[in-house]
Amino acid sequence: MNNFATLKLKKKIIYEFVYLLRKLYVMHHFRTTMKQLTIIFGLTLVAATNIFAQTAITADSLDKKIAAHFDKYRPELFRYSGLTTYGETQTTFDKKQIETELQLFSEVKNSKLLNKPTATVFALCHNILIHTPDNGKSFLKLLNQPTTNEDIIGLLYLEIIFAGEFGEQLAVDNLESNNKEWSKAWAGYLSSFAIYESSIPRIEKALQQTDDTEIKQDLISALMYISNPKSIEIIKQIIETAKNDEVQTKAIFAYAELAGYDGIKYLESVKTIGEKSKEEKKSSIDWLKKETSPKNKFGTEVTNDIDFIKRFGDIKSPAIIWMDKEGLLNEKKAKKPTPLTKDKKDKLLDLLIESKGFGLEAVKGQLFLSIEPTDIDKLLTLRQMCVYSPNNFTKGRLNTIEILVRYLRNAKK
Fold it and tell me: How sure is the predictor about 21, in pLDDT bands with cuts at 50, 70 and 90?
């Protein structure tokens, strides 16, 4: 396949991925706002419209050299831009490929590509994050520079997620930047993708220090998505001291999500300061009374994707093969999932990680009924693996894992 044809396929898959990103972010009981969707998904949509056009017209010889390398070795970042069976990933890299990619990294560090990276450069970074993680982290840290280029911001989002806790700390570094627009861009990222509890102290500090209304709202959302019950107190302080109606509105929304059923009494006592907060207070109380109960305090419900089972139940990925042997792909069982034993749950999580998330849709109901707080670390590893080879199912898998992690952290209360 020539470079032009490959470019067209890459462009198509990124458009498909961005289209999925624009779908409703929150599954089941989690609510969201159009403003939040606009901030996160608008950035990524704009990024997709130009990213590969820029790559196509570059005259930089090093960029062409990297592209030529990927004509021989398919980059995992764009594996699903070509003819590939779902469930495929490259888990081993030959010595020659590793040496070549590390050499290309060294050349990038001494070139203008470092300050004006292309999609090909990010594909190189992605591969190195897989086979030589320490070098990959160093590479990503160098690429993580303030920019107004929406192409680069969109690619950084993907790599930040893939880099796990290290990546999220880079996102918080960006939040703390003196560059206001850069800080806002990453407050927006954290408002939907923050998940590591180690980020909480820095997010809380930034929340207390900023006077920017939009950043305040985004950071309230970030604490909500991380879902450490201890954050309830700072959210209550914001509700009680807010002088801005929109900030209080966001805090009320976040409190309802964090406190669940047990928060109804407190919300009923809240004194709102404007029409938006008044409306959100009523909406949150109504939602909690309708969707939650003493037995299900957060209204959480996770069900299996039967359509996924019908379409992909014959794919020979490690997780799917095991599910089939265990009878978990049977449609009747999938519609009425039951808890797994601890050994089978542990085995399933390991196989899903090995399969880079492929098959999660078929057993998320069983996982929801089986997981315990001690499984959070494995779920976070699985989250990273879902971005190993991004594809049309990546966003949904991230949603599912974030719901499961939030559920477990709330269960610790």
Answer: very low
Question: Sorting pLDDT into bands at 50, 70 and 90, what band is 47?
Answer: very low
Which two three-digit tokens encode residue 259?
């406190």
Kindly give, in sequence order, each residue whose CB lies less than 8 Å from that of residue 91, ignoring residues fewer than 6 positions away: 354
Name residue, tokens 């085995």.
347
Q: Which of 7-16, 55-64, 274-283, 397-406 has the lowest mean pLDDT?
A: 7-16
Residue with tokens 């095991």: 322
Return the HEC string of the chain.
CCHHHHHHHHHHHHHHHHHHHCCCCCCCCCCCCHHHHHHHHHHHHHHHHHHHHHHHHCCCHHHHHHHHHHHHCCCHHHHHHCCCCCCCCCCCCCHHHHHHHHHHHHHHHCCHHHCCCCHHHHHHHHHHHHHCHHHHHHHHHHHCCCCCCHHHHHHHHHHHHHCHHHHHHHHHHHHCCCCHHHHHHHHHHHHHHCCCHHHHHHHHHHHHHCCCHHHHHHHHHHHHHHCCCCHHHHHHHHHHHCCCHHHHHHHHHHHHHHHHHHHHHHHHHCCCCCHHHHHHHHHHHHHHHHHCCCCCCCCCCCCCCHHHHHHHCCCCCHHHHHHHHCCCCCHHHHHCCCCCCHHHHHHHHHHHHHCCCCCHHHHHHHHHHHCCHHHHHHHHHHHHHCCCCCCCCHHHHHHHHHHHHHHHHHHCC
Using one digit for the tens of pLDDT, what is the confidence trace for 54-92? 343 343 799 999 999 999 998 999 988 765 566 655 578
Q: Is there a contact between 323 and 352 (Cβ–Cβ < 8 Å)?
A: no
